[in-house]
Amino acid sequence: EYLALFPEVSPRIDAAIAFLHERGYKRIVLIGHSLGAIMGTYYLAQHEQAEIQGFIAIGLSATDLPLVSVPDTLGKTRLPLLDLYGSDDLPTITSTAWTRRLAASDNPNYQQIEADGANHFFHAKDDALRQYVLDWLQTLNPEN
Q1: pLDDT digits (tens, 9 = 90+) for 18-27
Q2: Cβ neighbour number for residue 87 with a 10 Å cutoff
Q3: Residues facing residue 54 across a β-bridge
Q4: What is the CATH number of the domain that holds 39?
Q5: Are 74 and 100 in contact (CB under 8 A)?
Q6: Can you list the alpha helix ranges (DSSP code H) found in the chain?
Q7: How many domains does the chain have?
């Protein structure tokens, strides 16, 4: 049922980027959780020269859907990318962490973090989630 939403992904993200540019924002980082992370990966697959400076995927599985192959996309992108998941995340996410890391091994801008004790929704780990994101954002090159 969610596959029907994928054709809307690129136009919506493009509209959001245009909206932010119109308001003077130059550095944009895309962030998605779970299906939103897969949709972000789908967007990257469609836009190799995306007008974003990084992508944070929280709770991303190495899904191989008819519309997007997460491993293939991770293997192609050189965009700064944070792959963040919890040690108590869903099995489809924890069991594919190695696949994602291997797929992105040629990307020097890829970082994978397993948040100790966090579940798929980072329940009761809001502060830790926020800190992981802020710490990673600070590593981005201001020239990007």
Answers
A1: 999 999 999 9
A2: 12
A3: 29
A4: 3.40.50.1820
A5: yes
A6: 9-22, 35-46, 70-76, 91-94, 97-103, 126-137
A7: 1
